[in-house]
């Protein structure tokens, strides 16, 4: 077998082709991203601040004696030597009747009071008529009578110990005192 130049050239070409194929086979194909990278997401908004606590309920507990005294009023005032409910007293006692209907377990005592003028006996009788006037008004506006008692203090328990018209006007009243069942 003779080794000539043509033969050597063919062997060299075959070797080059084999090396090329081997070189291509050993390299990994480059990969290019086929999808665009995701767009940058906007930063989430900052968390909303916690709501400020609401105002704390102030004032008396509903259905309590303080609720009755502060929000309704516990006294109905009378004119001199009278046991007729004045319009302003009727408004107060209307409020009392509504409140007492809302809280049916509450029991009250109506206390009739008078100013310092007049005899003790006369003022005890007038105080009883004032207490009964308030009681009758409450009953006529839906409060059951078994929840109400009355008493007359006459001029024995003035709310204003002073003298004069202003003190007398304060002392002529029917006081609705809660005696049980309130919160």
From TrEMBL:
Record field: compositional bias (Pro residues)? 30-54
Q: How does it sit in the membrane?
A: Lipid-anchor
Q: Name one GO biological process term.
A: cell division
Where does the record place it? Cell outer membrane
Q: Which InterPro entries does the record match to this protein? A: Bact_OuterMem_StrucFunc, OMP_bac, OmpA-like, OmpA-like_sf, Pal, Pal_lipo_C
Q: Which UniProt keywords apply?
A: Cell cycle, Cell division, Cell outer membrane, Lipoprotein, Membrane, Palmitate, Signal
Query: What are the GO cellular component annotations?
Result: cell outer membrane
Superkingdom, natural source = Bacteria
- Provide the OmpA-like domain boundaries: 65-182
Q: Magnesium among the record's keywords?
A: no
| Positions of the UniProt region annotated as Disordered | 26-61, 154-183
May I ask which residue range the UniProt record assigns to the signal sequence?
1-22
Q: What is its main location?
A: membrane
| Purpose of the protein | Part of the Tol-Pal system, which plays a role in outer membrane invagination during cell division and is important for maintaining outer membrane integrity.
Matching NCBIfam families: Pal_lipo
HAMAP family per record: Pal
Protein family membership: Belongs to the Pal lipoprotein family.
Q: Quote the subunit structure annotation.
A: The Tol-Pal system is composed of five core proteins: the inner membrane proteins TolA, TolQ and TolR, the periplasmic protein TolB and the outer membrane protein Pal. They form a network linking the inner and outer membranes and the peptidoglycan layer.
The molecule here is called Peptidoglycan-associated lipoprotein
Q: What lineage, starting at the top, does this entry show?
A: Bacteria, Pseudomonadati, Pseudomonadota, Alphaproteobacteria, Caulobacterales
């Amino acid at each position: 077998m003779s080794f000539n130049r043509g033969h050597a050239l063919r062997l060299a070409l075959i070797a080059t082709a084999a090396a090329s194929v081997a070189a291509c086979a050993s390299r990994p194909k480059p990969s290019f991203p086929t999808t665009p990278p995701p767009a940058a997401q906007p930063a989430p908004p900052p968390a909303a601040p916690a709501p400020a606590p609401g105002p704390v309920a102030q004032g008396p507990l509903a259905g309590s004696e303080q609720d009755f005294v502060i929000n309704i009023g516990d006294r109905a005032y009378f004119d001199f030597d009278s046991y007729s409910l004045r319009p302003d007293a009727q408004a107060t006692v209307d409020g009392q009747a509504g409140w007492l209907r809302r809280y049916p377990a509450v029991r009250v005592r109506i206390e009739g009071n008078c100013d310092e003028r007049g005899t003790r006996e006369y003022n005890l009788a007038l105080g009883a008529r004032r207490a009964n006037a308030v009681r009758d008004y409450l009953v006529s506006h839906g409060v059951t009578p078994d929840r109400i008692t009355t008493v007359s203090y006459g001029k024995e328990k003035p709310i204003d110990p002073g003298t004069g018209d202003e003190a007398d006007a304060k002392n002529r009243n029917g006081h609705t005192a809660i005696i049980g069942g309130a919160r």
